[in-house]
Amino acid sequence: MPAPLRIGDLVIDPPILQAPMAGFTNAAFRQMVREFGGSGLLATEMVNARGFVWLDENEAEHPDRLWGVADEARPLAVQIWDNDAATMAKVGRRLVEEYKISIVDINFGCPVRQVTEKAHSGSYLLREPQRMFDIISRLVKACSPTPVTAKIRLGCSPENVNCNEVARVVEEAGAAALTVHGRTAKDMFKGHADWDRISQIKSHLINIPLIGNGDLDSAEKVVAAFENYQVDGVMIARACLGRPWLFAQAAAALRGDPIPPEPTLKEQRNVMLHHYKLVTERFGEEKGTILMRKYACCYAQGKPGARHFRSHVATIASATEFYAVVDEFFPVEERPRNPSSAAP
């Protein structure tokens, strides 16, 4: 069992983190993860700092992405993004004072064009380490004593990998931990995460922990990450979206306990229905149902008949339609394997 992860004065145990993912890791999803257990630190969706300031100045409701944060169990991280140090510091301070969050995380890893090329934020800033330093140091001062962390990619492109330099900048600026996704921004989510590159970053850090992220889709891979690479923690991202029980499986594996089996398809169906209930309670039937489309597709991924289910669930607009599609098209039991397709 790896040692608990320490971020500032916080002890993250087990050292398995749930990644912040835009459009997915809202309060309903985080509740699903908590109910299964196994994650030492959960995170919100990433919050646009400039948008937050605009809402505040216009006395509008705070972002939906902060739904549930005030009353949620701790520890909890909120990830923010922008390229202006003063704006980031202002929002960070509000999150600490008003929401009492455990960690302020800075997104320097998002590769999406709307964030990078249009807003010159996220992974775009990897090409400007000094600007990263200014943002981090200003935020650290504003949020003290709440720890500030950063998430990066290996670089902007395979031809411009500068994660070692950036790691030193992140630590020198006062961040309490560094998370690294093992792809470049240009890679998006193609190919495989380079865990050797992630591991090499450890020698460029002096005191802060290194958290690895990328392609962790099984308990066995989480164990292998700790055994084979120089990381202090791991972060699970896309693989958990239709499998909120993955954290519990990974935590058991790290303890050396038997890995809990995948829930049956009937059990997974019930998990999805529970998730739908949480979403619609917050957003109402119409908006909640539309929001649930993408989650439902995640729950079906890799299952027999998934494509057929996705094509139908993608058009639902009411609870009646959702339940009808689930009843008719979500698989309930495994299809028997065709003996003729078995390897000799």
Automatic annotation (TrEMBL):
**Record's PROSITE patterns?**
UPF0034
Checking InterPro entries in the record gives: Aldolase_TIM, DUS-like_FMN-bd, DUS_fam, DusB-like, tRNA-dHydroUridine_Synthase_C, tRNA_hU_synthase_CS
**EC number, as in UniProt:** 1.3.1.-
Sites where the protein binds FMN: P20, M21, A22, Q79, K151, H181, A237, R238
> Which cofactors does it use?
FMN
Q: Which reaction does it catalyse?
A: a 5,6-dihydrouridine in tRNA + NADP(+) = a uridine in tRNA + NADPH + H(+); a 5,6-dihydrouridine in tRNA + NAD(+) = a uridine in tRNA + NADH + H(+)
Superkingdom of the source species: Bacteria
Molecular function in Gene Ontology: flavin adenine dinucleotide binding; tRNA binding; tRNA dihydrouridine synthase activity
Q: What are the positions of the active site?
A: C110
Q: Which residues form the DUS-like FMN-binding domain?
A: 18-327
* Keywords, comma-separated and alphabetical: Flavoprotein, FMN, NADP, Nucleotide-binding, Oxidoreductase, RNA-binding, tRNA processing, tRNA-binding
Xref: Gene3D superfamilies: Aldolase class I, Putative flavin oxidoreducatase, domain 2
Q: What does this protein do?
A: Catalyzes the synthesis of 5,6-dihydrouridine (D), a modified base found in the D-loop of most tRNAs, via the reduction of the C5-C6 double bond in target uridines.
* Protein family per UniProt: Belongs to the dus family.
What name appears for this protein in its UniProt entry?
A: tRNA-dihydrouridine synthase
